[in-house]
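Shift notes (night). Ran TraX protein while the centrifuge was going.
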Amino acid sequence: MNASVDSVFPEKYRILSGSALKMIAVITMLIDHIGAVLLSMYQPAQKILFTLFGREYNVYLIFRDIGRAAFPIFCFLLLEGFRHTRSRFLYGRNLLLFALLSEIPWNLMFTNTLRYERQNVFFTLFLGYLAFCAIEYFQTRPSMQLFCILGLLVVSIFLKADYGWRGYIFLLIMYYMRNDKPGQAILGSCWLYYEWRASFAFLSINLYNGKRGFIRGKSAKYFFYWFYPVHIIGLVILRQLLFLS
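Came back to this:
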């Protein structure tokens, strides 16, 4: 039986399993990347539809704003995976492996070449995961904890992975506030002020009921790893066929 999950919502409203959160994260990420790769090249998507709070919105911006919710949900799922995985080593190995596999598709997405100065989000998640491991391993040695956290922060600055050092700090916020969902939502939202649309992700995170859900087995698990590089390659091919051929 799953333990009760702290939330800003009463327990009866916590209807989202881990599987449902994964689907929300994947769908919002796909929407974001459709905007970044395809709609950025499609002129009708740039036409202003309305103005809200002084900001002009078009289809492209709507897609990108919806996509902001993906990163916080992926960070939350990473933390849940860290807490419940049977093998910390294999979990970390998979993150690093798919960070490397995703690099060429990521470069093609932004530059249409094999080189790009920034790295994909798997690297950010991997650094956060290493920080989680270090915090737990050195829990009786706070000086070593601090050394590892700061060392990984320096790596995140020089690595220039997606969301950068801010994303790394956000992962630490998610970890340290893991047992206080309301506080996690407030502090996480404050940290994401520069991407405030991402704060809406905490609504779905607080609807999480602590259950695994319908996605089970290795095949389903690795689908979500493979989806990242494969969908990017698909979008790059579509962009080439529709706009660059």
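The longest helix spans residues 218-244. The beta strands are 50-52, 55-57.
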